[in-house]
Automatic annotation (TrEMBL), chains A, B:
Name used for this protein in its record: Redox-sensing transcriptional repressor Rex
Domain CoA-binding residue range list: 89-190
Main localisation: cytoplasm
Keywords: Cytoplasm, DNA-binding, NAD, Repressor, Transcription, Transcription regulation
UniProt xrefs under Pfam families: CoA_binding, Put_DNA-bind_N
Subunit structure: Homodimer.
DNA-binding region per Swiss-Prot/TrEMBL record: 26-65
InterPro entries for this protein: CoA-bd (IPR003781), NAD(P)-bd_dom_sf (IPR036291), Rex_actinobacterial-type (IPR058236), Rex_DNA-bd_C_dom (IPR009718), Tscrpt_rep_Rex (IPR022876), WH-like_DNA-bd_sf (IPR036388), WH_DNA-bd_sf (IPR036390)
Subcellular location: Cytoplasm
Originating gene: rex
Protein family membership: Belongs to the transcriptional regulatory Rex family.
Chain positions covered by the region annotation Disordered: 217-255
Known function: Modulates transcription in response to changes in cellular NADH/NAD(+) redox state.
NCBIfam families, alphabetized: PRK05472.1-3, PRK05472.2-1, PRK05472.2-2, PRK05472.2-3, PRK05472.2-4, PRK05472.2-5
Amino acid sequence: MATGRTHRPATRSRGIPEATVARLPLYLRALTALSERSVPTVSSEELATAAGVNSAKLRKDFSYLGSYGTRGVGYDVEYLVYQISRELGLTQDWPVAIVGIGNLGAALANYGGFASRGFRVAALIDADPAMAGTPVAGIAVQHTDDLDRIISDNGVSIGVITTPPGAAQQVCDRLVAAGVTSILNFAPTVLSVPEGVDVRKVDLSIELQILAFHEQRKAGEDASADGEDPEAPPMRATPASRKGPDGDMPAVMPA
Amino acid sequence: MATGRTHRPATRSRGIPEATVARLPLYLRALTALSERSVPTVSSEELATAAGVNSAKLRKDFSYLGSYGTRGVGYDVEYLVYQISRELGLTQDWPVAIVGIGNLGAALANYGGFASRGFRVAALIDADPAMAGTPVAGIAVQHTDDLDRIISDNGVSIGVITTPPGAAQQVCDRLVAAGVTSILNFAPTVLSVPEGVDVRKVDLSIELQILAFHEQRKAGEDASADGEDPEAPPMRATPASRKGPDGDMPAVMPA
DNA sequence: GTATGTGAACGCTTTCACAGCT
DNA sequence: AGCTGTGAAAGCGTTCACATAC
């Protein structure tokens, strides 16, 4: 059974912490906006505000890249844009394949911000033979049967999975076998991949559930003893002694 | 100026760490799958594998909820499903409004996993008058002018923003003014919100850039001195002394 | 015997606060 | 005087390893 390693354990590239890497795109976006407004330099305070972080964090982050600022002045916008782009590997372009051209896959294919910075939709792949040849966002959809060849021919190393959950692992395996080493997974599935393959996931349902947790907390802040009907709770198999916190299972359960 | 607090600083609910909250949906999904297969109990090891984490982490996570397992046996699946659902606030249903019905908004409206667990698409809102009345996923799109009323009438406390980046902050402000206290933002924009409002963001572009970073690292692992043409780097305004690591700007720049 | 629940150790991330340049 | 760059401290999150309960 494949155990599947997701995200980075602690391999740490050339010393840039993962948390910092995750913020570089944020800084880059803010810097690009400044660049378009022809702003020549920016302070850590200003840039941090624009990126939605605090300035100490930003300075610490930049310190991992090198000393790219000027004391008493700030950072040169163009110069930083280049340095961060290079660090993120955006000075080359990355052909990307999207597998699963349903509503979401099509939406991503049409997404403008995709091509904007280094990424290029090189192929759209779907298992439905009826879709083969249909153009989506100006690109003809190709059939899964040719996945291997499509990946190889286009030198794709980043794959995006937007299939139904049931197909995700299989598609993932085929992508990896074809040479893909980075996967962005939109399917609500835990993917197993061999060592050396990176997986990041985007999961609408999980995000909503996290929001609901906090939302519930807010609502329950004043009204402690609720008067709402508590959904019929299932009984426990082993009715042993529990010691959960207040919100435990009701002592009486519905017949 | 609104400073805008994103995510949770460190308020920590009733003691459940944020990292744990973020994993509860994962456990819930794995447990639901087991439940559908009528599996009565599961060990921390098995469940951890299914959820893609290690068992120590899972047990630690569950310990924050209470002692819901049985030593020497494992966890009762149904019981845990109920406890986690309750903890996440999924025993009540959450009406959600989606603002910005373009490709992505429509895709989300059609997304099945949405309604599945406690969430219900209560309203679709768009600024384009031509879209008003058009049904998307069986729900008529309403115009932004009525946003306030729509939110109030439906008791929406969770909003999803899928507008173009330029409109996101304005839509966010209006949602918050109308009573929304949780926002899921798909627009590539840093949102400013007042204290007490939670924002989570989903950003395709950021995820791809993080993957590109690691991808670049993999590629450069053996080939140190690259032969690729390095995109013309911009010159620095202040040509002062830098001490960045190896990947510095080329000493000679293109004429 | 077996698997949970948890203090303690460890490592990563953030924040502080100030030395070091410009 | 002003702002960056960075050690040191504090805060979180993960992992270990074993006492505890079944």
